[in-house]
């Protein structure tokens, strides 16, 4: 599974940030390795330098073999919180997708 982490100019990413999120994705989504070929994470600060509640946004998109890509979104006060909320959503969606694949 290929993992790509993208941040906007308002989020301090850095290599440790990307390594940490990549490790978390590989650990949490490991059971989907056979159907997920790539995961892209986009983390943005929707209000730039302004500080407002829930202005950090995380979109996680998973490329699933022989299916349309799946995307989930979460907003929170910090990039980390938004990431983990989106990751949790992605796990639920992939669980449902696997169940549907098994039914066919």
UniProtKB/TrEMBL annotation:
Q: What is this protein called?
A: HPF/RaiA family ribosome-associated protein
Q: Which Gene3D superfamilies match?
A: Ribosome hibernation promotion factor-like
Among the Pfam families in the record, one is Ribosomal_S30AE
SUPFAM superfamilies referenced in this protein's UniProt entry, alphabetically: Ribosome binding protein Y (YfiA homologue)
Biological classification of the source: Bacteria, Pseudomonadati, Bacteroidota, Flavobacteriia, Flavobacteriales
């Amino acid at each position: 599974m290929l993992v790509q982490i993208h941040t906007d100019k308002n989020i301090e990413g850095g290599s440790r940030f990307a390594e940490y999120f990549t490790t978390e994705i590989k650990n949490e989504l490991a059971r989907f390795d056979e159907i997920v070929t790539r995961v892209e994470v986009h983390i943005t600060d929707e209000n730039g330098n302004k500080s407002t509640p829930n202005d950090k946004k995380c979109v996680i998109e998973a490329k699933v073999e022989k299916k349309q890509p799946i995307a989930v979104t979460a907003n929170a006060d910090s990039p980390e919180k938004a990431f983990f909320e989106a990751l949790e959503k992605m796990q639920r969606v992939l669980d449902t997708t696997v169940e549907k694949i098994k039914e066919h």
